[in-house]
Design brief:
heterodimer, A: 428 residues, alpha/beta, Rossmann fold, 2 domains, 15 helices, B: 358 residues, two-stranded antiparallel ribbon, 4 strands, 73% helix, 2% strand, globular
Chain lengths: 428, 358
């Protein structure tokens, strides 16, 4: 009896779905637990707070309430699949899984279901070719842009010639960390530097041997593709071996306050890339304070405002909201579907006037998305950590990447994907 | 009253030795199969299939595999995750190298390849036992994961090291890839689970299973009465790896669709499967199913109750999930160290006497 009752309760709990609402649904596949939580929390908070602000201040997107459904993935692909399946039935408009592994899982599934995926600066880089990846977007920049921007920064620092210099890549031994290798190899052929690859296994707490090798071989520059606890450990190890920090450059996922603060003064001068601006000196933050923080609606603990990854979560939400607005205008309806959202993303235009109107002047580069280019312009800046002031600041403008090399790689990789999956490339 | 042997006369040896000697049990078994085949496919949606049923079926095969090795033959293994990776990568290589090959044969061949790898790593078991063997299989786990990460041939030189399953169909229905219907992938996995569970049950009742159990209970005594330890241990490793390889191939091809070795087949997976058989019950086919159900369904259920029903924050729910599942494991092991299968056995014993217990 007791068992049947238990089973009935269990079955009811599993079937139970949230009530159907005519909201615009934005699932947030976030992670606030596990070894990647330090970076997952600020992003999730920023993402959620921006939607809260849009609802509180503007009454939603075009008057329709935006609903964020959080789902904890723990950066684990199986939980990510579970989250995707449990939220897609609620009318999810776009997925931003913040994990390259989960993105790879979702690419075929979301394409079959007709739901767009926006992997902003992560995921499968060749998704920039919208002729093959109709539903997948990775604007405004991707890993290969990042690799090239980092090399460009090294070139600038060395006066344009890095022939014979050595560059080491410390990377997370997963799809995420392996993404830039091809590009760095191609670029090394072009510029003549020597590339050393140092893999760090999940979760990245053990890096003694990699940094011992760096200490022995003394590469001129170290690049890092790290995430979560791996970032903090790497920066600490670099500080321990007294590696010159301004020669240590992380990708945009390896440059947040949570990564550098634990290393204390040792992290001073560490560089990382970024695809948007830093700090909280924007009119938008006044609105956030008024409508979200002071109203007690902040997501999470509410202590992440103004950090790099909080800004990135907000930026991701802003791009999603603008795409939804574009879709509403294009299709003349407030109640958009995932297919309309996809059209909105493909026709998204972000310019300075729009960002200023949103209270985020000069927050990111201006760009537009098209069917041929789902990857945006591929611009990125370099930011540097100041350990005494405890803050990041941009030290370069948003510079271009070597699209000649990257474009060829994207065409090659997306053609391989198209052949594997019997996709005829084309714009509808 | 209903559940009894009395009045059920067996007139042939075959009937006397059947798996379910009690009529009620037999009908229950037939009914379960009928419901699983005829009713469940029509009730499935994407969420149920992807989040609950497919992982349950696939991990059940892995749990049966490990149960054959650890539960029946007494050889502790922590290499299950690595062997699942062998199955997954074998199926990927077979699928991409021979696009015409039927998916059923791909899965079976992947199991065969894993069986050979498993027997290779089972060789140390002839010399070492217990904890030392566990450490040797742990080495297999780390070595295999490292191998699949290190050698680009295994992932067809793709830029990211990810493997993704191309679409394959059976009788015109897609079973792998994103266009697979939930009912099709369910029936495909169910077919494997049924055949493999049936084979395992009969294998463990036959000569081989008795040899394994003899080795498990006392290897020296078994050797004296004429059981060849080399053959028994290696067949156990081979059969067990075959099962685990098939489950790895299904996990990758049918369930995940894309995988990277360190994340999908890491050491956590080995422990997960080991926990399944410990909680379900060592040396029991039913226990493998019960353990897989417990370890797969419980987190999903708890998440849906805490986040979906009670509206808790997702991180709080995720942390509580660890606490509750961990607590339940401890409680189970204290109350019933022989696992869920023993509870099931006791319940059946009591049912036989009901309503007149003496």
């Amino acid at each position: 009896m007791k068992l049947t009752k238990l089973a009935a309760v269990a079955a009811a709990a599993m079937i139970a779905a949230s009530p159907v609402l005519a909201d615009l649904v934005f699932p947030s596949l976030d992670y606030r637990t596990g070894p990647y939580a330090a970076n997952g929390i600020p992003f999730a908070d920023g993402y959620s707070d921006y939607f809260t602000l849009i609802n509180a201040r503007d009454g939603g997107i075009g008057g329709v309430n935006a609903k964020v459904i959080p789902c904890e993935t723990g950066y684990n692909t199986e939980k990510g699949v579970e989250c995707y399946e449990s939220t897609k039935g609620e009318g999810a408009l776009v997925y931003q899984p913040l994990s390259t592994g989960i993105t790879y899982q979702l690419i075929p599934k979301a394409t079959a279901d007709g739901i767009p995926v926006h992997s902003m600066g992560y995921g499968r880089t060749s998704a920039a070719n919208g002729k093959v990846f109709h539903n997948i977007f990775n604007y405004p920049a991707n890993y290969w842009n990042g690799a090239s921007i980092a090399i460009n920064h090294i070139l600038a620092q060395e006066g344009g010639d890095i022939k014979g210099k050595s560059v080491a890549l410390v990377y997370h031994n997963s799809a995420y960390g392996k993404e830039p290798i091809r590009t760095l190899e191609e670029l090394s052929k072009k510029h003549g530097y020597k590339l050393t690859l140092l893999a760090v296994d999940h979760p990245g707490q053990e890096q003694k041997s990699q940094w011992l090798q760096i200490r022995r071989e003394k590469p001129d520059y170290v690049l890092m593709w790290g995430w979560g606890v791996m970032n903090q450990v790497a920066i600490q190890e670099a500080a321990n071996i007294k590696y010159p920090m301004d020669h240590f450059i992380g990708i945009w996922w390896s440059g947040s306050e949570n990564d550098t603060v634990p290393a204390g003064a040792g992290a001073d001068g560490y560089k990382a890339l970024n695809m948007h601006n830093v700090g909280s000196d924007y009119p938008l933050y006044a609105d956030l304070k008024k409508h979200v923080y002071d109203a007690g609606k902040a997501a999470g603990a509410g202590d992440q405002a103004g950090t790099v990854l909080y800004n990135r979560g907000m930026y991701a939400a802003m791009l999603a909201v603008e795409a939804a607005k574009t879709a509403q205008e294009m299709h003349g309806t407030k109640d958009i579907t995932p297919a309309m959202m996809r059209d909105g993303m493909e026709n998204l235009v972000i310019d300075e006037a729009k960002m200023t109107a949103l209270g985020m002047p000069n927050f990111g580069p201006s760009f537009s998305v098209s069917c041929e280019n789902h990857g945006g312009p591929g611009l990125g800046a370099v930011q540097q950590w100041d350990a005494t002031a405890q803050k990041w600041s941009l030290i370069t403008d948003f510079g271009p990447s070597d699209m000649e090399v990257i474009g060829a790689l994207i065409a090659e990789d997306s053609a391989a994907f198209a052949a594997e999956n019997n996709i005829t490339p084309g714009c509808n | 009253m209903l559940y009894r042997e009395a009045g059920d006369f067996k007139t042939t040896y075959a009937k006397d030795q059947q798996t379910f000697p009690i009529t009620f049990d037999r009908w229950g078994y037939f009914l379960t199969i009928a419901v699983a085949v005829l009713v469940v496919p029509f009730m499935l949606n994407d969420y149920w299939t992807q989040a609950v049923i497919l992982p349950f079926l696939i991990y059940a095969i892995a749990a049966i595999g490990l149960n054959i090795l650890t539960g029946y033959c007494g050889q502790v293994s922590l290499g299950s995750g690595g062997f699942m990776a062998v199955g997954a990568y074998a199926s990927y290589k077979l699928m991409t190298a021979f696009p015409e090959l039927n998916i059923v044969f791909v899965i079976l061949l992947s199991g065969g390849i894993t069986a050979m790898v498993g027997m290779l790593f089972g060789l140390p078991s002839l010399r070492i036992k217990g904890f030392y063997l566990a450490v040797a299989t742990l080495a297999a786990q780390f070595f295999l994961v490292w191998l699949f990460n290190k050698v680009p041939w295994f992932y067809n030189y793709s830029a990211s090291g990810q493997i993704s399953a191309p679409e394959r169909s059976l009788f015109g229905f897609a079973v792998t890839g994103a266009n697979a219907n939930p009912a099709t992938s369910y029936l495909f996995c169910l077919g494997f689970v049924f055949v493999m569970a049936w084979a395992a049950r009969n294998m463990t009742r036959g000569a081989n299973g008795r040899k394994w159990m003899a080795i498990r209970d006392m290897d020296i005594a078994a050797e004296i009465i004429g059981v060849d330890p080399l053959k028994s241990k290696l067949t156990a490793f081979g059969v067990s790896s075959f099962y685990i390889g098939i489950s790895g191939a299904l996990l990758f091809a049918v369930y995940l669709g894309a995988a990277e070795v360190g994340e999908a087949f890491g050491i956590e997976k080995s422990f997960l499967i080991l926990f399944m058989i410990i909680i379900g019950g060592l040396g029991s086919i039913f226990g493998s199913f019960a353990g897989a159900a417990f370890m797969i369904l419980m987190p999903v259920l708890l998440k849906n109750i805490m986040v979906g029903q009670m509206g808790w924050a997702t991180d709080l729910a995720a942390h509580f999930q660890f606490v509750i599942v961990g607590g339940l494991i401890i409680i189970f092991l204290i109350v019933e160290p022989h696992g869920l299968a023993q509870l099931w056995r006791l319940a059946k014993e009591k049912l036989r006497l009901w309503p007149f217990p003496h």
